[in-house]
Amino acid sequence: MGTLDGRVVIITGAGRGIGREHALFMASEGAKVVVNDLGGNIDGSGSDVGPAQEVVDEIRAMGGEAIANTDSVTSWEGGQRMVNAAVEAFGDLHVLVNNAGILRDRVLVNMTEEEWDAVISVHLKGHFAPSRWAAAYWREKSKEINGPVNAAIVNTASGAMLGNPGQTNYTAAKAGIAAATLVMAQELSRYGVRANCLAPLARTRLTLQTPGLGDTVAPPEDPSEFDKFDPANISPLVAYLSTADCPFNGGVFHVGGNEVGLYGGWSLDGDQIIAADGRWTVEGLQSLAPRMLEGRGKLASITTHINDTFKGFGQRPPTV
User: Fold this and answer.
1) What is the pLDDT of residue 208?
2) What is the rounded distance in angstroms from the CA atom of residue 209 to the CA atom of residue 42?
3) Can you list the domains of the chain with their CATH numbers?
4) 67 or 161, higher pLDDT
């Protein structure tokens, strides 16, 4: 018996990389999988039916059930077709894994409008469109059965949500996904739908193209050594968050290698709030606001930096 027996899952961007690993792993756990992938290039251009169908063929070869879908996640109608395809093929939908993504890295002063729009569209709208149609399906099903549907959304952010130079568009999109997850979790819980989010550390087409990360995420020279950046390391958490009895809702998870952790979110330091006698003046702020920087860096408005995700990564002992 697999942990996902009978669960119907849509995975976007499942033709390659992390998404492919999710599809194969979840199928091995008994899920029926809709493998969505436009088959585009890393920058989002082009399309190819091959990647999605190849993963479907792999799943079927190991005795699983899967169908391919090549709709763009940026398409409103495409999001609806994904949901319809799952229900028509397998009779229901239990899990949506939003994984598809692209890169158009550029420092802000050189970034074009098209580079901004493309990344925001694929990541943010690419999470919104499938989620909206899945949510509508679950709401109606909840009304029909007069109870919770026991479904899940798993979104994909990134450590880049903490701020990564050269990725204004990508960082904004990933931070938006994390924030949107919190709203999804609150709005959809009434129907029995949970929403969680990953910030994975893994070797993908995208991370290999990120400046300074290519060498970091390379496979170990010794093949017997644990490959902490293998994208397959991410999939067990996705499967766990997709199980019927998972208790988490509204979590943003750090995951990679042998590690799983929870982000604490943006935080307001109550001990460093300053107050005026009525409305602040500029002069008053000039005098007192610097106190809020005492004991912290000038860039510490977000308590964790992207580089913190690499500190001690892969070196922590197993938790007992």
Assistant:
1) 66
2) 9
3) 8-262 (3.40.50.720), 270-301 (no CATH)
4) 67
